[in-house]
Design goal:
The protein is α/β, with parallel strands linked by helices. The protein is built from 26 helices and 17 strands. The protein has a 15-stranded parallel beta sheet. A two-stranded parallel sheet has the order 4-6.
């Protein structure tokens, strides 16, 4: 048993004193060195840390009110204050990581990709995060989740604010010391206390329908929500609570999400009106996501009147991103939404209309609308829209629809990312798209699961070679390309025109893999290669080793479920060791070998020392063997 040092004992006594007598910290705060302040702050409970930081701010305000004769002293205190606040912010970060070791759920993480977040400029800088705000916001979200669970019980009749939170949740912030701060344990356990005390820190909340009521509005009176996601809102009473919350935060709201909701046209009209600023039909929303929600637009179209949803879209003048996923939209409704957004939102950069089974009529109606705009603006030159990302995956678009889409895309000269995956466009569709691709500068193209053959993909790769267009990402996964794609793919890779290539499950096979390995000599710029589920077998070992040894820019190779045997993994491990020992050193950071049925895989890689330079993901034989017992490679 280790005997604590005198310094450790003093720190424990100081922490205990601060927790039970927080006011003493006000005097000690400016007399202790920063390192001791930091060690004390990370040892107290979150509720005690909150009290200590509030006292620090009170102390700073008192110094600020002093007369001009103390100006130099105030200047010293302000400098010292900024140093102390850094200590507090670091303490809050440690508290957050301790409570949520897997991290706190971030905004937009499930809706937008990392490249789309970069495009919008809303990536998070860790050094600028207010961890006090982040901590209490996440705490309030857990409180809301617990309240929703209790309020959903069949016979629950109490008010939302009186929901009693479990001791396990309260223990995280210091339930055992709550009496020290003049609050009874019963009062502390009620939901309303936490929103009254910490509601000011709420910026992003996810709210279930059962909580959408006027009572929640009162609980959130001190919040200035910037981003809110609503779930399972279907009844009129829930819509009323939703509108009240939107109206209360309409000046601060920048993002709204609807998940698994069902809105009538009148409900959508009320939602639009609740966010309107003054007499003008506009609001400050930058991001609007409708996920797996039903929108009643057809009824208004049949009656000849503008729907509430269309009026809502007309007010989205500052919109930057919009997502409509699995909304049961038909072609006419989707084309109308698309057209209205392009007209109303002059800053719209990202648009997803996916999983809606639109078929070709959607493209024809959209083309008709865009052509009408062009005809009405002949004197003003070519009409264009600032869209940079267009996601049309899983909409049953065929080759004929792609022919019309290639014309529509000419109205979007700034387009950087195009996703057409899971549409039956086939080779004729990709050939119709080739002339457009030669005229623009796309950065990302996804044509996975599009029913393509090697002939169609070869035409695509040849067009990209002729245009000398560099792509950040190209995905052709889950198409039956076969071994014949090896030669054109090798030529394309050798020109260094792509950074991330996804050719998962394209039927490359061992012969195609050998041909690809012979064709490629140098692969500049490639940083991420996905070649999983191609059954390349032992022949694929030479390709993987060649990529490891010769591709200095390559950081990630995904070669899972490829039937690599024991000898193949030994060769790959030896090549990794050679690159690690070399003075120049390879840049490979991740190698995924999961799903390859080798029992001794872990033993093979235990014998080599990679010094943490490369992470190797190995097969879990117990899990993977369940698959191989049912599926083998015997035709």
């Amino acid at each position: 048993m280790d005997v604590p040092s005198l310094q450790q004992l003093c720190k424990r006594a100081l922490v205990a004193s601060v927790i039970h007598e927080p006011r003493m910290w006000r005097d000690l705060n400016y007399s202790l060195p920063p390192d001791l302040v930091s060690s004390v702050l990370v040892s107290v409970t979150p509720i005690a840390l909150q009290v200590l930081q509030e006292q620090l701010k009170e102390s700073h305000q008192e110094f600020s009110k002093q007369s001009g004769t103390f100006r130099s002293k105030r200047k010293y205190v302000e400098v010292f204050e900024s140093t102390q606040l850094c200590c507090y912010n670091s303490a809050w970060k440690i508290q957050a990581n301790k409570r949520w070791p897997l991290g706190i759920k971030k905004r937009y993480c499930n809706a937008l990709s990392s490249s789309e977040l970069d495009l919008l400029g809303i990536t998070e800088d860790e050094s600028e995060v207010d961890w006090q705000q982040r901590y209490w916001e996440a705490h309030l979200q857990e409180c809301l989740n617990e309240a929703a669970a209790q309020a959903s019980a069949p016979f629950y009749e109490g008010s939302i604010g009186d929901v009693i939170l479990p001791d396990g949740l309260l223990a995280h912030i210091g339930l055992q010391y709550v009496n020290t701060y003049g609050v009874s344990a019963f009062e502390f356990s009620a939901l309303k206390y936490h929103f009254c005390r910490f509601g000011q820190y709420a910026r992003y909340l996810r709210i279930r329908s059962v909580l959408c009521s006027s009572e929640l509005i009162n609980l959130l009176i001190s919040a200035r929500l910037q981003h809110v996601a609503f779930y399972s809102v279907t009844h009129a009473s829930h819509v009323e609570g939703l509108c009240l919350l939107l109206r209360q935060n309409k000046e601060s709201l920048r993002a709204v999400e609807f998940h698994y909701c069902k809105f009538s046209s009148s409900a959508l009209l009320r939602v639009a009106e609740s966010m309107t600023l003054g007499d003008e039909p506009t609001h400050f929303l930058h991001h609007f996501f409708v996920i797996s929600s039903s929108l009643s637009i057809q009824d208004d179209r049949l009656s000849g009147s503008a729907s509430g949803f269309v009026k809502l879209l007309h007010s989205c003048r500052y919109l930057q991103s919009a997502i409509f996923f699995d909304n049961q939209l038909d072609s006419l409704d989707a084309s109308r939404i698309f057209f209205v957004l392009l007209q109303a939102a002059s800053s719209l950069s990202i648009l997803h209309v996916s999983e809606n089974e639109l078929e070709g009529l959607f493209v024809m109606e959209l083309l008709k609308s865009l052509s009408s705009i062009q005809c009405s603006n002949l004197n003003q030159g070519c009409v264009s829209f600032p869209l940079k990302v267009l996601d049309l995956r899983s909409n049953s678009l065929d080759s004929i629809a792609i022919q019309g889409l290639s014309v529509c895309l000419k109205f979007m000269p700034l387009l950087e990312q195009l996703n057409l995956s899971d549409n039956p466009i086939e080779d004729d569709g990709i050939r119709a798209l080739v002339p457009y691709l030669q005229e623009v500068s796309l950065l990302e193209l996804n044509v996975s699961s599009c029913g393509l053959s090697s002939a169609g993909v070869s035409a695509l790769l040849e067009a990209l070679l002729l245009s000398k267009q560099s792509l950040k990402c190209l995905s052709m996964a889950h198409n039956c390309l076969g071994r014949s794609i090896a030669s054109p793919l090798g030529k394309f890779l050798s020109k260094g025109l792509v950074e991330r290539l996804d050719i998962e499950d394209v039927g490359l096979g061992p012969v195609g893999c050998s041909e690809l390995q012979e064709v490629i000599s140098h692969i500049p710029n490639l940083t991420h290669l996905i070649i999983s589920k191609n059954r390349i077998g032992p022949a694929g070992c030479k390709l993987v080793c060649k990529l490891i040894s010769e591709s200095r820019m390559l950081k990630v190779i995904e070669s899972s479920w490829n039937l690599l045997d024991l000898e193949s993994l030994k060769c790959i491990a030896l090549e990794l060791q050679l690159q690690c020992d070399a003075s120049s050193g390879g840049m490979l950071e991740v190698l995924d070998l999961r799903g390859n049925p080798v029992l001794e895989a872990s033993k093979i890689f235990e014998k080599i020392n990679l010094d943490g330079k490369c992470i190797v993901l190995l097969p879990d034989f117990k899990l993977d063997n369940q698959f191989f017992n049912q599926h083998d490679d015997d035709p």
